Structure formats: C-alpha cells, structure tokens
What does this fold into?
Amino acid sequence: MNIDWGALPFGYHKTDFNVRCYYKDGKWGSLEVSSSETIDMHIAATALHYGQQAFEGLKVYRGKDGNARLFRWQENVKRMTRSAEGIMMAKVPEELFKEAIFKVIELNSKYIPPYGTGATFYLRPLLFGSGPQVGVKPAEEYAFMVFGTPVGPYFKQGFRPVPIEVIRDYDRAAPQGTGSIKVGGNYAASMLPANRAHEDGFASVLFLDALEKKYIDEAGPANFYGIKDKRYITPCSDSILPSITNMSLEQIAEDIGLKVERRKVPVEELDTFEEVGACGTAAIISPISKVYDRVKNITYDYGNIPGPYTTKLYITLRGIQEGALEDRYNWTTVIEGV
Ligand code: PLP
Ligand code: COI
It folds into this structure.
C-alpha cells in the first residue's frame, strides 16, 4: 500500500472491506462483511426510481497521541433516523449503526491517515429502499451499508479562503420539502448550479430560501455562518441540513466569547460581516474570500486570509477532533485497537 496521504482528494479510494445489512419481513438481518465494491440491486428498487435513499458522512481523526477518534457519531444516527422517517424508510437502530461503523474502521484501519497529513478516514453510511415497487410507495425491503475511504479536504484549498456564488435561478430544496434531511435528491438538485459555479471559478454556491429569495440558506454541501460585532450568526431555516459541525461551532463560538444568533440572515447582511465561512464534516471550516451575486452584480469581499475568529474556531474544532484539546462535552469516541 502506497498512499500519498497529503495529496488525497476528497474522493473515493478503494479500501478492503465494507459492511451490509438487509431489512426484510419487518426486521433487520445480521451485519455482513464484504470485499466487493459493487452491489446487486432489484431493477425496480425504490431507491433507483423514486429516490428512496439517504446517507450520512462522518470522519475518523488520527490524533498526535496516535489514537483514532470518531466525532459525535451518535448525532449521525439521529439524523439518519430523521431521514428515514422523512421518506418512509426502515430506521437503522443505533446499535446496528454503531456495529457497522466500528466494523468498517476496524477492518480498514490501515487506511486511517496518519496525524498531520490533513487527511482523515471518511465513513459513508447509506440506507436505501431495495425492494421493488412500481407505484410511488415505500419499499418493503431496505439495505443499510457502510463504506470508508481515506480523504483529503473537500475544498482543495484546505483552510484557505475560497470564492462562492449566490444562486438565484435554482433551489436545492423547498421550504417544506426534504432540505432538512440527508437524501440524495437534494444533492442531485444542487449539481447544475454547483457545476456552473465551478466552471466560473467559484468553489461553491450559496443557496437562498426558495420562497422569497431573501435569506441565506446553505453554502452547497455545508452550513453558512457570518461573524460581526463578536457575534456568530448562522441561518435558521427549514430547508437546510442541521449540521453537526455547525452545532459544535456554535458551542465553541460561545466558549471563545462570541454571542450565537441562529436566525434568518438577509442576503444583504453579507455586506456587514467581518468574516464568513462554510462548515461541515467534509468542508470542516472553509473560510470564504468573496461572495459574488451575479444577478445583482455585487461582490462581497472578506479578504484572502482567514479571519481571527474563523481561525480560532477551526483550531479549536480540529484540536478537539484530534484529541489535542480538552473534549469538554464528550464529543469524541476513542476507537480502541486501531
Ligand atoms: N449541509 C449539507 C447540505 C450537507 O450535505 C452537509 C454535510 O453533511 C452539511 C450541511 C454539514 O453537516 P455536518 O456538519 O453534519 O457534516
Ligand atoms: C459531509 O460533509 O459529510 C457531506 O456529506 C457533504 C458531502 C455531500 C460532500
């Protein structure tokens, strides 16, 4: 095995094993280990036709002390449960979720990137309707699978400010739709505007609320925050994914003396922020250098150096995830034996 850990992109890298579990006749079977990268599916599976599918994303961080740690994995189970409820899928019990992720880590421990490389081991739990339906209704059978892959930072710039673009001609999710759960359709809906933004030199997009196009929703696959006057301000909206990273940053922000405001954030408020960033498991914290509003022809500029609060938030979050700082809230789980 010869991996250049420091050069890893945020992408798929083959590992040795994944795990799979099937729900049939109203109950989950036992977890199976597989070394195959492919799956056999029913041609009429609801996941393929009607998007009955949800996923999660969480990371294993190798610390300076040599220990590998998971960050707030219980929150991912809760979110996957909400996703399952939201599109009428069988729910994955916490114990099964736990067994699956720990098994994948244990069986692929040689793929956990060393400390200091900027890379991590990313876990992808996946739940989908595997049983057939032709009418639009929930499947009677489900599959739950987890694979892991070593990854580098989502934005190749790492902890360097990136430009993003306000989107006014596409929506990723509707106010009472599926934006607050982690289902694949939300990501399909984001691809056209994200692709256009990339082609135009932006690292990501900034979606606005679909109803009025007045308020900031999300920064592509990450939550948005702005900082001004010692306040950490982040959108409150029914159509954004409740980010576990953002939830953690709100606590850290408070701990470093910022007042936290979770409220509607009018897009014009971009003009008043001292620092802005995007946060998520994949993105960690990505500072934002510029926000361009193509329709209004306005550019909001925040500079090419991460701001002081963004830097402090980033260092604190990484420090907790890697075990270098005190884990006051018991967010991390040390994985024994890997
Ligand atoms: N928003 C979207 C749309 C996402 O896909 C993600 C990633 O999971 C996030 C926000 C960040 O959530 P978390 O911090 O739980 O990874
Ligand atoms: C994550 O941050 O884990 C995500 O799922 C975002 C992603 C779609 C890249």
Summary: Residues 162-321 form a domain with the D-amino Acid Aminotransferase; Chain A, domain 2 fold (CATH 3.20.10.10).
